[in-house]
Amino acid sequence: MIALVPQPRIVREQPGELVIQEELGYVAGDGAFHSAIHLIQERLWNGAKIRVNPATAQLNAARAALTFQWVPDIPNEGYSLDVSREGIRIAASSSAGAYYAAESLIQLCDPEIYREGVIRPLELRIPAVHIEDCPKFIWRGLLIDVARHFLPKRELFRVIEAMALHKLNRLHLHLTDDQGWRPEIKAFPNLTRVGSWRKSTQFGADDRNSPETNLPHGGYYTQEELREIVAFAAERAIEVIPEIDVPGHSQAAIAAYPQLGLANAANVEVWSRFGVSPYPLNAEDSTIDFYATVLGELAEIFSSPLMCIGGDEVPSDAWAADARARQRTAELGLSHPRELQQWFVNSIAKRVVQLGKVPMEWDDVLAHGVAAGAEVNSNGSNPPVILAWRGDRSVQRAIDLGFRVVSCPDTHAYLSYRQSALATEPTPVGIVLTTQDVYNFDPVPRGCSPEAQRLVLGGQGNLWAEHLDDPRRRDYMLWPRACALAEALWSGTGDYSEFSVRLTAHLQRLDAVGIEYRHEQGPYPWQERPGAAGRKQTLAEREAEISNLLSV
Questions:
Q1: CA distances from 238 to 163, 165, 234, 404, 507 (A)
Q2: pTM for the whole thing?
């Protein structure tokens, strides 16, 4: 059995195998195959000490050959891969497609190929096969929260490489929140000088009663590091989308620049607790200008056409209790301070469009019936993208309003939720979300018309990091659930029992890479979190809670 993850669209096993020893010659022509070639060179050298070089007279017919071909009629991101006794042929119409073919080729090798050093002689024997493949969805994403707990650049690179192995192609970086500000902004140095660290951190998921550690936590990315992250991801066919969350989840920014907050926020610090901070941004034009400057600097760094501006979980009661916010509501001709949320997101969305970018917003912005930013594109050809985290009803609501949607329902795609009902799950939060639950994720609501389906770009898994204070804990929460996510978004849902057989073989690759995934029997003792209180829900309780949110 050829155990590839995600499963290609067509896999036909052929008789025989290709044996590679010492050297592999390649012919690439004029196509954009550089990233694919580099990946094959790196893996074969690091894992098997096999050199991959351009074909020359010395690399004659007696040696294996790798041929790349540019075939325009292959779908974007698609590829074909043929392995025979004579050699390897990769055909694609895009750099990404060629890269994904290379990833599939490497998965056909012995799992030892994923090690960074050869620990025993490794003769590569690749089974003969014909593969034709292309993704079901163009958006196959992961949100990585680096605001609640900072993830050093080297560890973020690990996540990116693991995403690429699984053909995930969108990295949504949650860069700011109440607990920390991570991107360097040269116009406002206090955002990182003050806002990038906190004095302590809540330990456990009981937001009222959990104790706090007394250890400072922080970190930030310089602009050069952000450029490096974007370039590193692009080499692996991954687009990085930055998120600056406004007007809620902004306490770290207010701590750095108090003039951004309401009157009651004059002395706030970067938040050491979790939950929804009671301190939103104010609705002054100067605050909009401040964030336009922030986004302007980031627009020069991130090549993605999208910029996420949040819009979620805004504590509008704080505006209602603030005299100046009530006055501002009247000045803007609004009927209630809660409407400042939509005004604020609309105002920021307009600035994003002026920067030549497309706004991306959480589905909270749909609360007033018309998505924020709807009027910022006069011809309607490039409307904002909605992140639908509250299930199919939010996906359908966004579609009905004509918006493109990335589906990320918490009941199928929140990878920070507990993985079983075991008492030993570390800091157990939310519903039980198993690998099979993630595998069954379909971004398209049932009964969706073909026209409406075209507005669903795909889906993503969200890894919120309140309780993930080191890379090992992120590994535990991500994998193997993200393997299932990758297959659901690349191949579509299928037979989970068949997938689980392939997954068992695939875990040998993760072992070789060094990913500390969750094993089927549950956490190892060192993966537990004794004393860290959880906050559990049943699926029925969570669905009722979401339904209540959507009725507001």
A1: 8, 11, 5, 20, 22
A2: 0.96
